[in-house]
Amino acid sequence: MKITQLPVGSRTAALTCYVQDISSELPALNRCPAILICPGGAYTFCSDREAEPVALAFLNAGYNAFVLRYSVSQNCPAEDVFTHAFAEAQEALDILHTQAEEFHIDPEQIAVLGFSAGGHLAASLGTMGRVRPAAMVLGYPALTVPGKALGMELPDLVEQVDAQTPPAFLFATQGDHLVPAVQSMQFACKLAERKIPYEVHVFAYGDHGFSMGTPNVSNATNPENQDAAAWFEMSLRFLRHTFRKDTLVPAPAEVTEYGLDMKIGRLLDDPAAAPVVQHILPELARYASEQPGCRGITVNRLQFYSNGMFDTAKLTELDKALKGLN
After folding, report:
1. List of residues 6+ apart from 157 with CB closer than 8 A
2. Angle formed by the axes of helices 273-280 and 282-290, nearest 10°
3. Which range has the worst mean pLDDT, 46-50, 170-174, 281-285?
4. pLDDT at 282
5. How is residue 270 annotated by DSSP?
6. Which residues are bridge partners to 68 per DSSP?
7. 26 in Cβ contact with 100 (< 8 Å)
8. Does 251 have pLDDT greater than 70?
9. Which of 171, 272, 287, 315 lies at a CB distance of 3.0 to 4.6 Å from 231, suitable for a disulfide?
10. Distance between CA atoms of 55 and 68, rounded to whole angstroms?
11. DSSP string, 216-250
12. pLDDT of residue 153
């Protein structure tokens, strides 16, 4: 593994790159997915617990990982922190795209991961970025920060979700006393309105800042959380689906034989089937002209969801006549 550090932005931000050595025995490493990690720390510091340990876990899962230690109030005036941090995050994403070949990463498979305030920064990339990641993983993210709760004005990212926002995996705990888990659910609702794929997990137990939830990142303030640690494997599966562009619900195979399991629109557009429908069940043709949305479902499905809209005897007759066309 090669570990290098690149300066980012005009202040003291740095991008630490964890890139696996390629090998003829490991062809998958020639072109890996990538994860850009934004540690949390209330925009005051960047947590070590949410940096290298997380990067190493993703390395072990076949990713090349990149940790951004962005501008925080320890080294930047509070009123300028977000402006600099957001610019640095965008520059880091640019670096991953422009140097994808050097880093052995697929530029179409770059995800961003952020915890707490780092989750706010990661979600800013996904909702407001000039260049967007392919996916977001947001851990107990601060998405709506009222007023100057952190000593600075921050955008409400629930309201920034747009059509270009990438799929998101969100996780939090019900007992989080710093950032209510409802923020993650509100963000997911906005994604749902835009029909953007998402997955959200609110674990019953645990508090803010559990990171990986594993013993190696635990301390007196942030104990091990075996339940919430499940987020890591879950997020890998979500990212795999996202990078493969899997559909949320695979479409069933289209029925090609005439019958009540053929889509209504196809029956009504077919020169052989349409006259049969008009003769036996003209009310179906009339309903389809008034409610064209039903054309994409089958006669049987419409009958089921409408709680028996059509006469059963007529449906039986229609089914027999249609099957006679096969």
Report:
1. 120, 123, 124, 127, 128, 143, 144, 187
2. 100
3. 281-285
4. 94
5. -
6. 15
7. no
8. no
9. 171
10. 11
11. GG--SSS---TTGGGHHHHHHHHHHHHHHT--SSP
12. 86
